[in-house]
Design a protein that fits this description.
Elements: H1 2-18, E1 26-31, E2 35-37, E3 42-50, E4 56-63, E5 67-70, E6 75-78, E7 83-92, E8 97-99, E9 102-106, E10 109-113, E11 124-131, E12 135-145
Antiparallel strand pairs: 1-12, 2-12, 3-11, 4-10, 4-12, 5-6, 6-7, 7-8, 7-11, 9-10
Length: 148
Amino acid sequence: MNVYHRILTVLSFLCLSLNGCYRADRETVIDKTPFIIDDKGVIFQCNPPLVRRCNTATVRIGLKKDWEPEPPWNSIKFSDGTRVCFKCFLTDSNDKVYESNCLGKSGGELDIRFDPPVPKKIGITQVKIITDAVVECTYVAWHDFQAK
């Protein structure tokens, strides 16, 4: 039995090692300096490139004002009534562009989502975010996680 338990332990360790996202959220801060997004957009260069390792990845933004998502889930509404549409474009190392398709709220932060998901193991070298109104932000990050 002792050998059997050792084999199970080694196999369990290998499975957890191979699945790097087992119960783990990974957030890579792209920029933690406050910034403003408007209709001209803001561009962030990513060096090293961002890589999706888990089954879902979003661009997460901290907003200075209170807000709620608005149907059809591509805009938000601030507490003062202002509605703002967001668009996000990810560019990979081969210059292929991925466009966001909906927004969500996670822990008070804005999650910009991509469906179909950005393929795994490609390098995202640039993030561009555009809004149709001026929006003050506190940070932007790449959030890589296992969706339930």
